[in-house]
Write a structure and sequence with these properties.
alpha/beta, TIM Barrel, four-stranded mixed sheet, globular, binds zinc ion
Length: 301
C-alpha cells in the first residue's frame, strides 16, 4: 500500500508593524506622529510568538525598518525563537506611489535597521499592502540590486489598493535585468468561475474558519500548491486604541473579527503544516528537481 503523501509545508508569515501604520489609515495618521502614538507592536508580536511556540512552528517575519530601529530587542527575540527575519520596507509607503530612487532609499534604510538589530543578513521582502503591481514591477530589479533573493509582494487578485489578477499564482523565478528573484505570490484559491484571495489579513478574519479551512485544503490538494498565510500583530490585539477618522470601509477592514483571529490561527496551526518562506521555496525546488530528473528508483519502476 503506498504511504499517504506528506502534507505540503505552507508559509507562515507575519508583517510586523504597529496598528497605526497600516495603509488603511495612512491618510489619517501622519508618519511624523508615529513616535508619539501608543505602541502595541511588542506586546502583540509576543502574542504571535507564544502562539507559534505552542505549536512548535517557525515562520518568516517581515519587519518594518521603523519598528526594528525603535525595538531592536523585538527583532532579536523573533530571531532567538527560531524564526526567519525579512523586510517590510521602512516607512510603509506604497511602492507604486514612490519613485524608484525613493524606493531604493527606503529599502536600504529598512534592511540596515533590521540587520543592525539582528546581526544577520536579510534577503526576503514584502511590500506594504502588496504594492508591487503592474505599475511597480521595476521594484523587483531594485530588490535584486540591493541583495534580495526572494519577494512575496504580488497578489494575483483584484483589489482597490493592490493586485495583479493575471500574475502567476505559483512560486516562480522572475528574471530581471539585474538577475533572478524568486517570487512567492500571495494565495488565491481557484474555484469554478472565480479565484478567491484566501489565507491572511482581512480575508482570514472575514471568512468563517470552516470556509477558510476548505479553501486552504483545496489549494494544497487540488491546486497542489503551498499557501501563504499572513497576519499582522495588531490582528491579535482586540484592545488596541481605536483610530479616529478614515472611511467606513477602512474601519471595517481593520477591525472586523479581531477577537477571533487568535483562535482561528490556533485551529489552522493544528490542521496544516507550516514553515518559513525558505522552507517553502526549498520544497518547491526539490519538487521541480524530482519532476525534471527522475530518480534511479523511478527509472527502474
Ligand atoms: Zn504592512
Amino acid at each position: 500500500m503506498p504511504a499517504a503523501p506528506t502534507p505540503l509545508i505552507n508559509a507562515l508569515t507575519v508583517d510586523v508593524e504597529d496598528y497605526f501604520q497600516v495603509s488603511s489609515f495612512e491618510r489619517v495618521v501622519d508618519r511624523r506622529e508615529w513616535s508619539s502614538r501608543e505602541s502595541r507592536v511588542v506586546i502583540s508580536t509576543q502574542r504571535l510568538l507564544d502562539l507559534f511556540a505552542a505549536h512548535d512552528v517557525r515562520g518568516t517575519f517581515f519587519i518594518l525598518g521603523w519598528v526594528a530601529e525603535r525595538f531592536p530587542q523585538l527583532v532579536r527575540d523573533i530571531a532567538a525563537a527560531g524564526h526567519e527575519l525579512a523586510c517590510h520596507s521602512h516607512w510603509h509607503r506604497l511602492v507604486y506611489e514612490m519613485t524608484p530612487a525613493a524606493f531604493r532609499e527606503d529599502l536600504r534604510q529598512s534592511k540596515r535597521a533590521i540587520e543592525d538589530a539582528a546581526g544577520a543578513s536579510v534577503t526576503a521582502f514584502r511590500a506594504p499592502s502588496f504594492s508591487i503591481t503592474g505599475r511597480s514591477l521595476w521594484a523587483l530589479e531594485i530588490l535584486v540590486e540591493e541583495g534580495f533573493t526572494v519577494d512575496s509582494s504580488i497578489f494575483p487578485t483584484r483589489h482597490d489598493r493592490y493586485g495583479m489578477p493575471d500574475a502567476k499564482p505559483e512560486i516562480h523565478v522572475v528574471d530581471t535585468p539585474a538577475g533572478p528573484i524568486t517570487e512567492l505570490p500571495m494565495t488565491v484559491c481557484p474555484l469554478p468561475g472565480v479565484t478567491l484571495p484566501v489565507g491572511g489579513g482581512g480575508y482570514f478574519r472575514l471568512y468563517p474558519w470552516a470556509i477558510t479551512r476548505r479553501l486552504l485544503a483545496r489549494v494544497n490538494r487540488q491546486a497542489g500548491r503551498p499557501f501563504v498565510f499572513y497576519v499582522h500583530p495588531w490582528e491579535v490585539d482586540p484592545d488596541q486604541p481605536r483610530i479616529r477618522g478614515g472611511t467606513r470601509l477602512s474601519h471595517f477592514r481593520h477591525y472586523v473579527n479581531l477577537r477571533t483571529t487568535a483562535t482561528k490561527i490556533d485551529r489552522m496551526l493544528r490542521q496544516f503544516r507550516f514553515g518559513t518562506v525558505s522552507d517553502v521555496i526549498a520544497q518547491s525546488q526539490t519538487a521541480q528537481r524530482l519532476t525534471a530528473q527522475p530518480t534511479t528508483a523511478e527509472l527502474a519502476a
